[in-house]
Design brief:
- Strand 7 and strand 8 form a beta hairpin.
- Helix 6 packs parallel to helix 7.
- The protein has a single domain, classed as Metal-dependent hydrolases (TIM Barrel), CATH 3.20.20.140.
- The two termini are 27 Å apart.
- Helix content is 41%, strand content 11%.
- It is α/β, with parallel strands linked by helices.
- The chain is globular.
- It comes from Streptomyces actinomycinicus.
- This is Dipeptidase.
- GO terms for molecular function: metallodipeptidase activity.
């Protein structure tokens, strides 16, 4: 799958006349341009999100900010989809900051480019300490929210950033990395995980780095689900049964992800979920029904270059989506899991498993040349 951030064009709304990519007519929806959901539903949505804020599974903000000569997220920044005023308006409590790179940055210097992304992310956080906080654990996420700050979780990053070295994995983790996408390497490819790839997953479990399977091959995803002792993420995947995008998941993989207590974070992009709020809600309904309410989360994918559905054009618009789910009969318990609880559960599990694994297992010294020798 091509990375979501191959280029960062100005984000646009899907027009009212836009049809689906398969040529079918636009879906009639209650949330067309300029439409506001009924006040009672929107008020309920704001009340629920005040107690259970959004943990957004994918943001391209570090890369987008790296292209700007100057910015101020506290005052508001019109050049991006995400700033602190809009996150407060949308009740965003935690944000996964992607360290993914455009293809042109992967020509022999993926590790260096990833470190530069990480440095940019840390600099942005340091310059906005009143609103942002770098976190590493589930407890720090809660503390950050209680202090009125948005918790920033670093990742996902490309597995290619490891340069086939477990030592680099440990260094990236020490610098704050919490999520790694298992795709696009010799050890996590179309044929699945190699012996070295399996060792990478074990070391990720020992460190508490979560595996991201969005864009991974079916063989890699299936083997990782079996091998990992920590729940895995799909940071930007919807239901392939509803929209045949290569990053979306078929029902059998969704069911397996649910059985493994993993998390499918549905992206708010027109390409993967459709051009309207009800389209996005259809995917959330489907993932909940197939994988269970504990397997579904949200992935804004803002500032990634993606086109977003009407009424979901930036990080302030989450209440509109929650209002639609309330209209459909989602319970407050299900919504609290969707927005906050499921991400917290996965982070807590990773923290617990890492502490346990570090008591039983030393840092791996395995090399790819030893395990994957021809």
């Amino acid at each position: 799958m091509a990375d979501l951030q191959d280029h960062i064009p100005p984000t646009t709304e899907v027009g009212e006349d836009d049809g689906l990519r398969d040529g079918s007519p636009p879906v009639p929806a209650p949330f067309d341009r300029g439409y506001e959901p009924p006040g009672e539903l929107l008020e309920r949505a704001h009340t629920l999100l005040a107690a259970h804020p959004v943990a957004d599974g994918y943001s391209g903000l570090p890369w987008a900010l790296g292209n700007l000569p100057w910015y101020d997220l506290e005052l508001g920044e019109a050049a991006v989809d995400t700033d602190l005023p809009r996150m407060r308006q949308g009740h965003v409590g935690a944000l996964f900051w992607s360290l993914h790179l455009p293809d042109k940055a992967q020509d022999g210097r993926t590790t260096a480019a990833t470190l530069e992304q990480l440095d940019t992310a840390r600099t942005v956080i340091e310059n906005h300490q009143e609103g942002l906080r770098l976190v590493r654990t589930s407890g720090q996420v809660v503390d950050s929210h209680n202090c009125g700050r948005v918790a920033v979780v670093l990742g996902p990053a490309h597995a290619a950033a490891l340069d086939d070295s477990l030592g680099i994995l440990r260094i990236l983790h020490a610098l704050g990395l919490r999520v790694l996408t298992l795709a696009g390497t010799t050890w996590a490819g179309l044929s699945g995980l190699s012996r070295f790839g399996e060792e990478v997953v074990r070391e990720m479990n020992r460190l508490g780095v979560l595996a991201d399977l969005s864009g991974a091959s079916p063989a890699t995803a299936e083997r990782t689900l079996v091998l990992s002792r920590t729940p895995v993420l799909c940071t930007r995947s919807a239901a392939r049964d509803l929209r045949p995008h290569p990053a979306n998941l078929p029902d059998d993989l969704l069911a397996a992800l649910g059985a493994a207590k993993g998390l499918c974070m549905v992206p708010l992009t027109a390409e993967q979920t459709g051009p309207t709020v009800p389209d996005v809600a259809d995917h959330l309904d489907h993932v909940r029904d197939v994988a269970g309410p504990e397997c579904v989360g949200l992935s804004g994918t803002y500032d990634s270059g993606a086109v977003h559905p009407r009424e979901l054009t930036d990080a302030s618009r989450y209440p509109h989506l929650i209002a639609e789910l309330l209209r459909r009969g989602w319970s407050e318990t299900e919504l609290s899991l969707l927005t906050w609880g499921n991400v917290q559960r996965v982070l807590r599990s990773a923290d617990f498993m890492a502490r346990a694994a570090q008591q039983r297992r030393e840092a791996s010294t395995a090399r790819i040349t030893d395990l994957d020798a021809p």
